[in-house]
Design brief:
The structure holds 3 protein chains of 3 kinds.
Chain A lengths: L1 H24 L1 H32 L8 H8 L2 H7 L1 H5 L1 H4 L13 H6 L6 H28 L6 H33 L11 H24 L12 H32 L2 H11 L1 H22 L2 H4 L2 H23 L13 H20 L13 H5 L5
Helix pairs in contact in A: 1-2, 1-16, 2-3, 2-9, 2-10, 2-15, 2-16, 4-8, 4-16, 8-9, 9-10, 10-11, 10-15, 11-13, 13-15
Chain B lengths: L18 H8 L11 H13 L5 H25 L14 H25 L9 H21 L26 H34 L3 H10 L7 H34 L11 H27 L8 H31 L3 H13 L3 H16 L4 H4 L2 H28 L14 H24 L5 H15 L1
Chain C lengths: L3 E7 L2 H13 L5 E4 L6 H6 L6 H27 L12 H28 L22 E5 L5 H13 L4 E6 L4 H17 L12 H5 L31 H4 L8 H19 L8 H5 L11 H5 L2 H10 L13 H19 L1
The chains are: A mainly alpha, B mainly alpha, C alpha+beta.
Chain lengths: 388, 472, 348
């Protein structure tokens, strides 16, 4: 753990230095790359939080053994909150609606009508609210969950009930704030475009990547002599694989329905977003994401046997993470380079910074946390869980 | 796969003595209450198929009368044409399509309970899934009638099917209407097969319990000669799971395609990318409401409290809360993004036409019914109260009809040009078709209750076996 | 279905499961159980192979996918291409929903009918029915059937074992069945009926052949009856064609009355396009595309014979419709006469 923390801190610092250099040299590129990196990370961290909350609400037994993995990932939330700073500070550079004079003439009246919502002070205030909600919900769940470790018997039953209720309400507010965060930080990159399902789309991608990350960490932590060895078995990976398959299909369904409706309606305001992202190198990237985030995982997760192999689930987890990154890249970067992909060194530096610091913080916070929720009355049946 | 005995486990985990007690206390209610034995269980559950309860006949007669009204209204529609309805230009889609979407939506909950909960290994679904599936089938019968009537010349309905016609014309697959044809016919076929396959073992039990030779023969034919062999169960289990696995994405695709009927257009209030998941969740929501309206009286009349326990009610209440919250989320997204879009037509539709337009009352009643009602089910006491659930079910059932009305008629009635605006009012034929379809549904459903084993006897027996084995 | 050599009845599932386990341990095989509910725990001990229905369903699903997409492609791209609002003829995103439905439909039909096929359902009669009270297998009794034994000693040992496991009763030897014969008979009858479906006697006894091949002569057909070998004969002398009455006209009969009638009819029907003086000077003529009405006083029209002019009025010519409905034959001749006067008038 400590080694991970140290390594991640080094990576993050390197990324920070490169990012600062980038800010001085080409600020717009640096900040947009930063938005891309930040969006990738915050969707995964919030996705892990949502999975944590959902597992409490649904009472999914098998996930008990992986719960601390999800808690570990969502533990990065305070770092995620702090790492949002460049987005707020650089809002004038990133978002074209901050300077309506730079917009094309036909877009100006449309953006002016949203002026009540899209203005810098309100934007920052809202952003702070979203981050605060996420940090608070994560802290509350964390406290309850870790507090259960010392309890037993009927006390832990009460605690479980409280955590369930808390998770249910938490899901509602995290869901809403996540939706509006994606509207604010990602959808407004193109201030004339709108899509009602956008929040669900961003959530689906982040959630799927979070499941992938959980698989990766669970695999690493369940090798011989690692903390979860013996607790996380192929049965659990099988169940995780089924959940991943469900959300692979869900993501593809949301992505397709957004695309089909806009494409077939062919309204210029709507479809321009897809026209940019479907042409040339952006179109190739989109196809790659469809294949890598839908076709390959779908076919790979269908057979029963593949889901139960930890090493395979690790590889698939890595694939899902990479694909999510490419998906967010495809969402964000066309606002800077509508004509085609223009790869920049900052597209590597910014993720290093954000992911590095987030990981370092998360591992630090995970110090001293027991790898299994020993106070949970469902832990023992979860460990002997066998797929039906 | 006994993991806890792995040698190099660095995790000290032991099953503590009071863990079991803790789990039991968390499980609030049992899924199955003291069922005596399989024989009594079978006799009890199949008894309604031999002699109808007292309430059955009057309800059947009333349903029959409403069904006759339905067919009269159909006759008027076929004879006089769509002019007998209140449809006009621009409100070319009104009650006919509202009823269609409403019935299909109701049908979805049945498949959800049957198929989706099966895949999630939710054992509690076992007692109620057949009623839910039957509800789906009869809802689909109703649902498929409305688009056919809406055709204007329903006797040419077969032109919608792609076959090499002498006219040389094929359906246009770039429109969502042929997708509807594919989706609904597939959904009906799959639901029918799924329902029937699940019925076979219980028809065999009915065959073996039948009080007369004629009934034994009839049930015997439909039971296909089921003997309960291990080879038969194995094949049945696989086919049933496969059908469940196919039915689940089918449910989602069918209502998504229905939602695409609206969202592929350019009308404000219709052209919204969230429609597919929004409609699916709304469908399941309205369907759960109807399932509650069916199950609660059945539970009371046939004395099934031991098989449909408070745990079932609790779970249904939770599902109402979850789906209701998702519908509310969709309302929020729609309203916000309509404003955010800056499009004056979208803003007008959401902020003026709906809450203050000619159908404002419908809009506000709908909002209260759909958004406020499920929030009461945060309370676990209300979740297990049959009366609260029934009332909530009725409100949501009606509220979701109103939602479809607001979406369809509300958007058509006030579209882009004020000179095109036209008020819509339903005629007696429209009302008769709606009420009559409810009558036809109850007629079919009562027939089902009378002659078909409506509780999955073999599944309840399996549940009882599992519970006794787990307790031992 | 083979004959059953040993049948045992149990009162509960646990006993049955234990009995099957014991039998398996003692190397007995070829067992079958009859239970009122599904007991997957038995599958391993009964040595049941994993069913291959899944592959069949997958294959059917793929076939459904190809078929559904293919039908859409054929209909909208190949057979009846239609430009609908500028969408491409081959709209892949638009074709996906119906393709998905086709896949699910095919796979589901394969699951259901595949299961029925493998189970050979309906199997309405079965040898177990001969056992008294066997019907309780669907209610609350659990049966076990054994088909093969190495020796009689083996059989006796098995029976002993079952009694020890709690069998309520054991039955030896249950007979054979006739079910498959009945099914084959039905199949043969159906095939027989089907094969006769394509005869000409189908359709309420009508003799369609007689309608298709009628004994009559076709135009321009041959006939050995006549010397020139043709079926068609020239009309005998004195035959009057239908409009013969009107195709002759006595030019000496043109008088003032005829001419004024002709002028009147011309002004009403013809001047609209041809102009009052027959010179094409009319509003309609000015707007007519691509060809304007010809000058009636021009040389080509002057050279036309009277009968030809009459024919143009009767049958129409090019853009000009037939005026046979509006003008009687006499009127038409009057118009022709008037046109002649216009032509002579302009020639001066």
């Amino acid at each position: 753990m400590r080694r991970l923390e140290r390594d991640a801190l080094i990576v993050g610092s390197v990324g920070l230095v490169l990012f600062v250099i980038g800010l001085l040299v080409e600020p717009r590129q640096a900040l947009i790359s930063y938005v891309f990196a930040y969006a990738t990370v915050f969707t995964i961290v919030v996705g892990a939080l949502i999975q944590l909350l959902m597992s409490h609400v649904t009472g999914a037994r098998w996930f008990t053994v992986m719960r601390r993995v999800a808690l570990g990932i969502s533990g990065a939330m305070p770092a995620v909150a702090v790492l949002a700073l460049p987005v707020f500070v650089g809002v004038a550079v990133i978002y074209s609606w901050t300077s309506p004079g730079t917009l094309p003439t036909d877009a100006r009246p449309i953006v002016a009508r949203k002026g009540v919502w899209l203005n810098v002070p309100f934007f920052v205030v809202r952003g702070v609210i979203y981050l605060a909600v996420w940090v608070i919900v994560d802290a509350a769940i964390r406290r309850r969950s870790l507090g259960m470790d010392g309890l037993d018997g009927m006390a832990s039953a009460h605690a479980t009930r409280r955590v369930r209720r808390l998770s249910a309400s938490g899901l509602v507010i995290v869901g809403l704030t996540m939706t509006f965060a994606s509207f604010d930080w990602l959808m407004s990159l193109d201030p004339t475009w709108y899509s009602t399902v956008y929040g669900v789309y961003v959530f689906a991608g982040g959630f799927l990547a979070a499941l992938g990350l959980i698989a990766v960490i669970a695999r690493v932590a369940s090798r011989a002599h690692a903390p979860l060895d013996g607790a996380v078995t192929p049965e659990h990976f099988g169940a995780l694989g089924k959940l991943q398959l469900t959300f692979v299909i869900f993501w593809a369904y949301i992505a397709f329905s957004q695309f089909l409706i806009i494409w077939i309606g062919d309204i210029p305001l709507d479809s321009s977003w897809y026209v940019t992202r479907g042409a040339g190198s952006w179109g190739t990237l989109a196809l790659l994401v469809v294949v890598g985030q839908f076709a390959i995982p779908f076919l790979a997760l269908l057979p029963r046997a593949t889901k139960r192999r930890p090493q395979f689930m690790w590889s698939l987890g890595v694939l899902l993470l990479v694909m999510h990154m490419l998906d967010v890249y495809w969402l964000v970067l066309p606002s800077l380079y509508p004509a085609g992909i223009s790869f920049s060194w900052l597209d590597v530096a910014a993720p290093l910074m954000v992911a590095g610091f987030a990981t370092a913080f998360a591992s630090r916070r995970a110090r001293g946390v027991r790898p299994l929720p020993v106070g949970d009355p469902y832990l023992a049946p979860a460990m002997t869980y066998s797929e039906p | 796969m006994s993991a806890s005995s792995a040698t190099s486990s660095s995790v000290p985990v032991r099953e503590r003595s009071d863990d079991q007690a803790a789990r039991t206390s968390l499980e609030t209610h049992a899924v199955l209450l003291d069922v005596v034995d399989d024989g009594t269980l079978t006799t009890e559950l199949l008894a309604p198929n031999w002699t109808p309860s007292r309430t059955w006949w009057p309800l059947f007669v009333i349903s029959g009368a409403l069904s006759i009204l339905f067919f009269v209204a159909i006759g008027v529609t076929l004879g006089r044409g769509i002019g007998a309805w209140g449809n006009n230009i621009p409100v070319a889609w009104a009650y006919g399509i509202v009823d269609f979407v409403w019935w299909i939506g109701i049908g979805h909950a049945g498949t959800f309970i049957s198929a989706f909960l099966l895949l999630l290994n939710q054992r509690w679904r076992g007692s109620i899934n057949r009623i839910a599936e039957a509800m789906t089938l009869f809802a689909l019968v109703n649902a498929s009638l409305f688009p056919l009537l809406h055709l204007g010349r329903p006797w040419f309905f077969y032109w919608l099917i792609p076959y090499p016609a002498t006219t040389g014309v094929w359906p246009n697959f770039k429109s969502s209407l042929p997708w509807d044809v594919a989706a609904i016919s597939t959904y009906f076929t799959v639901s029918l097969m799924f329902w029937y396959l699940g019925l076979v073992p219980d028809l065999a039990a009915a065959r073996d319990c039948a009080p007369s030779l004629l009934r034994r023969r009839i049930y015997g034919i439909f039971a296909l000669g089921w003997r309960g062999r291990a080879t038969e169960w194995r094949q049945y289990r696989l086919a049933y799971t496969l059908l469940a696995g196919l039915a689940t994405p089918l449910v989602i695709s069918v209502h998504s395609i229905v939602s695409l009927d609206f969202s592929i257009t350019q009308l404000p209030g219709w052209h919204s990318t969230i429609f597919p998941p929004y409609f699916v969740v709304g469908a399941i929501y309205s369907g759960f409401a109807m399932v509650l309206m069916l199950i609660l009286p059945i539970r009371r009349v046939f004395g099934l409290q031991r098989i449909i326990t408070k745990q079932h009610l609790d779970n249904m209440g939770k599902l109402l809360l979850v789906t209701g919250s998702m519908v509310a989320y969709a309302y929020v997204c729609e309203a916000f993004v309509a404003w955010y879009s800056g499009d004056p037509f979208e803003r007008y539709t959401v902020f003026f036409a709906r809450p203050m337009g000619p159908y404002a009352i419908v809009f506000w009643v709908m909002t209260v019914c759909n958004v406020i009602t499920p929030q009461f089910f945060w309370s676990s006491r209300l979740r297990t109260s049959p009366i609260a659930l029934f009332i909530a079910g009725m409100l949501i059932w009606a509220g979701m009809w109103m939602e479809r009305f607001i979406i369809i008629v509300g958007a058509l009635n006030r579209d882009f040009l004020p000179s095109s605006w036209h008020f819509y009012a339903p005629t007696w034929v429209d009302w008769s078709l709606l009420i009559g379809s409810i009558g036809l549904f109850s007629l079919l459903f009562l027939a089902f209750l009378r002659w078909v084993p409506f509780v999955p006897v073999s599944e309840v027996k399996r549940l009882r076996f599992e519970e006794r084995r787990d307790a031992a | 279905m083979r004959e059953i050599r040993l049948l045992a009845e149990f009162g509960n599932a646990a006993q049955l499961i234990a009995a099957v386990e014991r039998l398996r341990r003692e190397r007995y095989h070829d067992l079958e159980t009859y239970t009122p509910f599904d007991i997957p725990e038995l599958d391993a001990n009964l040595g049941l192979r994993r069913p291959r229905l899944g592959w069949f369903v997958l294959a059917a699903g793929l076939a459904g996918l190809v078929a559904a997409y293919g039908i859409q492609w054929w209909a909208n791209v190949h057979s009846y291409p239609l430009n609908v609002g500028g969408r491409p003829l081959h709209s892949i995103p638009a074709f996906i929903p119906a393709t998905f439905e086709g896949t699910v439909l095919a796979a589901s039909l394969a699951s259901f009918f595949g299961a029925l096929l493998v189970l050979r359902f309906p199997k309405l009669w079965s040898i177990e029915d001969e056992v008294p009270d066997f019907y309780r297998s669907s209610i609350d009794r659990f049966w076990l059937a054994m088909h093969t034994f190495a020796s009689d000693h083996d059989r006796a040992h098995a029976e002993q074992l079952l009694k020890e496991s709690g069998a309520l009763r054991t039955i030896a030897r249950v007979g054979t069945e006739w079910q498959s014969v009945g099914r084959s008979l039905i199949l043969i009858m159906v095939l027989f009926a089907g094969m006769n479906a394509c005869s000409d006697r189908v359709g309420q006894g009508f003799d369609w052949k007689r309608m298709r091949a009628q004994p009559r002569y076709e135009p321009f057909g041959g006939s050995r009856f006549f010397q020139d070998g043709m079926a068609m004969r020239t009309p005998p002398p004195g035959t009057i064609p239908r409009e013969a009455v009107s195709t002759s006209f006595d030019t000496a009969a043109v008088d003032t009355a005829t001419l004024s009638r002709g002028a009147n009819r011309f002004q009403v029907f013809c001047a609209v396009c041809h102009g009052v003086a027959g010179n094409g000077n009319s509003v309609v003529g000015d707007n007519m595309l691509p060809i304007k009405p010809p000058l009636l006083t021009s040389a080509p029209v002057v050279r036309l014979g009277a009968t030809q002019l009459y024919a143009v009025i009767t049958d129409g010519f090019g853009h000009m419709p037939s005026y046979a409905a509006q003008l009687t034959p006499a009127d038409r001749w009057a118009v022709v006469a008037y046109v002649r006067t216009l032509q002579r008038g302009s020639a001066r």
